Amino acid sequence: MKINILIFTALLAIFQVSATNADMVEIKLVDTQDETRGWCVDLFAHLTNAMPLGGFQGHDCFLYMGGVQIDQGFDEASIAEGKFVLLYWDVCMTLQEQKHHSYIAAEPCIGEPAQKFTMHDNGRITPDTAPELCLTIGSITIPGGGRLAPVGARPPADNSTIPQIRRMTFDNCSDEASIAALQTWTLRKGEYAPEEITMPHRFELTD
Question: Is the pTM higher than 0.90?
């Protein structure tokens, strides 16, 4: 009897995780920049060790790991309602301050105005309380995941697959092409396919 209960519990857990994964989407930068995996909105730290108090950052997307992962998995239905919810932790994207270069916090979902956002048809994500601001990923890429590798420390083939991070803030929206590329997002799930980068990889050797 105990064995049957354990089997049932295990199957239920698998079903719940699968059902949750089916509802999750990445928030991915349309322009791949220097990363063939793409850039995604990510909770600070890594997977189940992620720390909600650290807020959100830009990180290479994890779809290649077999699907949308829990520290990048936002509830698809809630986005249409103006809420950007990470299902695993039940925390919401939260605007820290109504000003340029504002920190993006991850706070318990309580429905406050600072947790209401609009994803526009043009790919911009703006706070309802400060529509002049756009979700913006930084332009500087640094190695992440605890494997800090200076340029040239590893062969390019190895360096190109280590975790990468970029800072993320709410900045003034801009129509300037180089900035707009850092403010245009899409939702993604499904099968992974490497993308063609739009700028040189930071570890690429040059003559």
Answer: no
Q: What is the pLDDT of residue 162?
A: 81
Report yes or no on 96 lying in a domain.
Answer: yes
Cα–Cα distance measured from residue 115 to residue 156, given in angstroms and rounded to the nearest whole number: 40
Q: Which domain, by its residues, includes 106? A: 24-188
CB 190: neighbour CB atoms within 10 A? 10
Rg (Cα) of the chain, in Å, rounded?
A: 18
Angstrom distances, CA of residue 102 to CA of 3, 97, 99, 106, 167: 52, 6, 6, 13, 11
d(CA 23, CA 57): 22
Answer yes or no: is 53 within a domain.
yes
Say whether pLDDT at 47 is over 90: no
Q: How many domains does the chain have?
A: 1
Q: Which structure tokens are listed for 7?
A: 């089997």
